[in-house]
């Protein structure tokens, strides 16, 4: 809980800067309404989505690339907060200390950064047990009046007077004050100061009762205060006050069983046997699976004995013994099941890396038998180890997924290598060079022809060269063939004047048409020449770019070597994670079995007590049954003597 609280405070304090309004002062540090660094914004997004691992990864990568410039201080605080949440206390301390070394200005943002950094360092050193240093850093943070850490430090150092003074501050929320009184009462009770403990428990209960609209948490704290006060009164032999305190606890709560058990024993000690029986019987009927109910089963017959009801007591002892024998069988079977139980089984689904700050769920087997395993299920150490085991199993699953992807990556590299080779070979092939040479020759021919046409202003040639105008080209071709035939006929003296005039008229018409289209045809030829020139330039540029990319592109052989090196690394890490997970799982199993053994020992003591009590009651019954006969025999003997 403290890690999650630290993480929240750090992130809320750090994220305030980029979302603040613009500062109207010219000389004041500029504030932003939105994140100015992409990586910082991505980290904030992942954090508020609950993807703490991705947020931390983004910040670490950005730090390596120096990608966060504007919000570097905020990013460092966020990274420290998330690292603290993941248990990376040393790394978090380094980040906070760096912030303290770098923050030497007097601006509002730097003051806030120093305050958060000192507070985080104080919490870190408190978690590590260095309480004097934590107290010193808490004072430097200036947040001693706003944090419950000062109270915890006073309790750790057994400075109970300072703790009591701190609890009188109204700056703390009511929930923290009530909890503080309960913790103070428990601390002084451990030192044997029972009167002071009772006083602090009573103050906690009175403070809870004084709240106008108490929350569910305050109701729970009030019940805890009444239970604590009841047991302190019992230790002081103030049984009537203990009974009144126990009666203040709400019945429909998980911890009512402790209050009912305490009420029963307090009533026994004050010779109020019937109220004790009523409380214990109600406990057995309402919560028969709890540890308190198992103790109540053996206490009930004692009340019947005190009420001179031996038959009821004997029957109750027999019921208790039968129940205990059944419980012993269940515990034996549960131990066998626990020995084969996987506390964090590998999931076939994709490992979720989100929500790692949440506690892991205990196996269903333990939930189903929580009546025997309640103490260990409520243990912080058990929950932390179970969460660590869950995280290790998920890491192992992630590594297994990557091990399955390595062959696919090798295949992709081979395909990419083949594709690159084909592209490079295509641009360096003889066919490509031949195509480029043909295009260059066509360009030179077109350029020479166009220069001659412009020089001679040969409109007919330009018409013939125009692409897409097949009709004009065909007419010009027919004219030239007709002129050739006319010249042959003229050489033979067989040509007529009308034929010459017809050819001249046709040429004139074509020449007039070509002259009309000269500029358009010339523009089309120049356009074709430019297009061809651009194609040649593009081919040259593409070849140059291909060579450059081929030289600058990632070396696929190096990538393949990295993948080959990654395979044994992943295998080694998977093996190390598996070994660490197995050690944690074995320690969890060992502690659970030890808890079952302790429960068996308690049950065996209850069985022995029940059997001894039954033997005592049966012996007393036999003595009572034999007593009249013994008296009669004694009377007859006396009469015979008299006779």
UniProtKB/TrEMBL annotation:
Residues 392-463 form a coiled coil. Gene3D superfamilies: Tetratricopeptide repeat domain. It comes from the Bacteria. InterPro entries: TPR-like_helical_dom_sf. Keywords: Coiled coil, Signal. Residues 1-20 form the signal peptide. This is Tetratricopeptide repeat protein.
